[in-house]
TrEMBL record:
GO CC term, one of those recorded: extracellular space
Signal sequence segment: 1-23
Top-level taxon of origin: Eukaryota
Origin species: Drosophila guanche (Fruit fly)
One GO-annotated biological process of the protein: circadian rhythm
Keyword vocabulary terms for this entry: Biological rhythms, Signal
One of the Pfam families matching this protein, by short name: JHBP
Signal as UniProt keyword: yes
Family membership: Belongs to the TO family.
Name this polypeptide is given: Blast:Carbonic anhydrase 2
Length: 275
């Protein structure tokens, strides 16, 4: 059992520090699966990489508070994605993805976890042996010159996925601890191999043309991935942002970076209290 603090939000001081935001439960005692690192020591990146990997292993096994609000990590359910991309060289797509199920984050390898000493943003290298997305799609547009108008089940499977993730954070104080506010995350993806299948590409009108188009996409998977890259980027970014926001609103930044500065010292007391 870990100790969970429930912040009482009635106090004037706490309201000020929280900027008037909501009350939330969070860990007030460091769980044994988190290894603390010191950012002003030379081996920090090694320590941080090891620490984040151990933490992710525990998240994958299941941390009750994270499962409760986010759900399981693998397979991972996601809300719908409405996607619009106009006039790129390779694709014009308007797509709605629903009933999204993402597999593969359970085998996540943290290859490197860097934290900036100046603004506490992160640069994280992640490797997934396989990531597979299953969903229902509605799509109108053109991929690799193939005009599409259809909808049905689809999957996209990526082998050897390297994710370079840039995360922006700001620090804030809650209940005497410093926390990360995860404000944005951007990814650059590098893929080994991509497979796909889209059912009812032409509203099921011509099964033969559908088979041909799927064959063509798989034969030309590098070009297919370039066409779908913005859509896949957005899927991964949204997934990671939600997961990170969930994890780091629950666990203080101090538990990961023991010597992280207090946000009041980092940004200056005046601006923080007034903001
Ligand atoms: C960090 O780990 C790498 C290998 O994983 C090693 O080569 C390097 O010397 C380590 N750096 C420090 C500062 O411990
Ligand atoms: C996606 O859904 C929106 C409404 O949420 C709709 O306006 C749009 O036409 C849909 N796009 C496709 C390709 O079905
Ligand atoms: C976190 O950042 C967002 C946007 O940058 C901001 O609106 C929100 O108030 C911040 N939350 C806290 C607790 O600092």
């Amino acid at each position: 059992m870990h100790i969970i603090g429930l912040l009482v939000c009635a106090g004037m001081l706490q309201l000020l520090l929280l900027g008037g935001s909501h009350c939330a439960a969070f860990y007030t005692e460091k769980p044994s699966y988190i290894e603390s690192c010191r950012i002003y020591e030379p081996a920090f990146t090694n320590c941080s990489t090891r620490s984040i990997q151990r933490f992710m292993n525990q998240v994958i096994k299941g941390i009750p508070e994270i499962e409760e609000s986010f759900g399981p990590i693998d397979p991972m359910k996601q809300d719908q994605l409405v996607f619009q991309q106009d006039n790129s060289d390779v694709a014009t797509i308007s797509a709605n993805l629903t009933d999204m199920l993402i597999r593969g984050f359970g085998k996540m390898v943290i290859k490197e976890s860097r934290v900036s000493k100046t603004d506490f943003s992160w640069l994280t290298k992640i490797y997934l042996p396989t990531m597979r997305l299953d969903c229902k799609y509605q799509m109108i547009g053109r991929i690799l010159l193939v005009p599409l108008r259809g909808g049905g089940d689809m999957f996209l499977e990526i082998d050897d996925l390297n994710i370079l993730m840039s995360t922006k954070t700001s620090l804030y104080e809650k209940g005497g601890y410093t926390f990360y506010n995860i404000t944005s995350t951007r990814v650059k993806l590098d893929v080994g191999k991509v497979k796909t299948h889209m059912e009812d590409l032409f509203n099921g009108h011509s099964k033969e043309v559908e088979r041909g188009a799927n064959q063509f996409f798989n034969d030309n998977w590098r070009d297919l991935f370039e066409a779908l890259r913005p859509l896949v980027d957005e899927t991964v970014e949204r997934t990671m942002l939600k997961l990170l926001q969930n994890m780091f609103s629950l666990i203080p930044a101090n538990f990961f970076v023991e010597d992280i500065p207090n946000s009041l010292n980092l940004y200056g007391r005046k601006t923080q209290l007034i903001a």
